[in-house]
Amino acid sequence: MKNTRLTIALSLFFLLVLGWSGVFSFSETPTPDSGIGGTWISLVPPMVAIALALITREVLLSLFAGIWIGALALNAWDPFGATSQSLEFMVTVSSNPEHMSIIIFSLLLGGMVGIMSRGGGTKGVVDVFGGLAKNRTQGQLYTTLSAVFIFFDDYANTLIRGNALRPMTDRLNISREKLSYIIDSTAAPLAVSAVITTWIGFEITQIQNALTNYAATTTDPVLQAQLATGAENAFRIFLHSVPYLFYPVLALAMVFLVTFMKRDFGPMLEAERRAASGGGVLRPGSMPAADTNLETLQPMPGKPARWYNAMIPVGLVVVVALFGLYITGAEGLAPGERTLMNIIGGADPFAALMWASFAGVISAIGLVVAQRILTVQQAVESMVGGMQSMLMAVLILVLAWGLGEVTQAIGTGDFLSSLMKDSIPLSLLPGIVFFIAAITAFSTGTSWGTMAVLFPIVIPMSITMGAGIGFAGGEHYAIFLGCISSVMGGAVFGDHCSPISDTTVLSSMSSACDLVDHVRTQLPYALLVAFVALAVGEIPAALEWIHPIAGMITGVIILYLVLRFFGKDPEAAA
Fold this sequence. Notes:
Helix content is 72%, strand content 0%. With 574 residues, it is an all-alpha fold.
């Protein structure tokens, strides 16, 4: 079936290219410098990327197709020139020093995870919590809190915690559906909202590139200066957008509420009643996903699992990253100017994350080798295996940067904003962006691919419509931040609901839960949180009717009331 969809998609793609190239011609070969914005043609590359992703569910193919068809327009419909320029786009963005820093950081962090897992350090951490759990509530609480120790990457978070905690939750009669839900709903929401994660570099560079590319296309010198300032302070903009991440934060709050209140509803209530009553942690007749067999994520047999072999490298990553942010941010500032905001705003997060991940890898190797848990060769093999787990992320990064270059060259953002400026109220833009991001992520099964497609479009469009002028403290800055956070939050929401999402599949695999059962039980919770996030967060915050923190608190109260009046204790008599 998948191959059939791929064949149909490719056929449609080449028919589109042939028809397009036959209908349109240019008297002059377009170049990336001149752009071809202002017409519907500028929509084709991102539309191709989205359409192919919807049909084939192949994000890498879809992103490259978007790059290639954009390069085709820029090369007067010469397919060979388009292919050459597509590769040039990716080489150019990959050779960017900041982009290369993010790639190295991601690979080193993946290598550290491989060493920690193979050396038993991560298992040692979850074992400490597992021994403390005496009942179902404590078991769910410790499962939730364990996310904090593996906050830096959603894949590592999902794979490690599910496999490590499953014996404990089975012993406490916690359903596999509930385990999968807790794992899935604390992994990506934490990764997208925390400051030191494998996501942050991707998010910052998306913001930075969108602002830089837009500055290169505008002729307004005042706006150019504002965009340049915004690009230089992309990390500060990201930090400002965190309070507007309503869905991820409320999704985390929902997990805690369900745990502490001991209340569930819908299919999850049925699953928990079955497990709590001794009917089994799995639904009768279910087909649990196979357990992961990644050698680099399994502890070495016969070796001790010591918690500090994971906590020390992770702690060192956080400390070194914070230290690096301070050093790079304080450099050049007078003593009186060294406020927290000025330091963070002027910091070089790319250098700080590079230093941090390198320190984490070195410490992880040193710990396991010094204790003779792993030999140097085994530690290096585990590091390489961990790096291999980041390959997909790196490929998405490179293609995402390339698509951003293409959309800038052909003026996609300008054309979209010109169409929508008079037809969509500016205050509703964050809510609309959230919806579009959710649909895209649901259909493609990837948060990163969704952000790669939407960031280069949404940021220029929101600015052209009047959001964020002057940036920090400027006119409609809240709407600008809401648009940025809506891309991230909507991507995570769609990812949670999608049965083809990587984290959804990995959650069910590591928890040994039926994939369909996991989606069926998690979906009502995700939909509830998304509705509340839009009702009390995205829309009113953009209208500046409510402060984002007040919106978060209101959202938590509403979720509490829903569980209080509609949820039931699965351990109580039906």
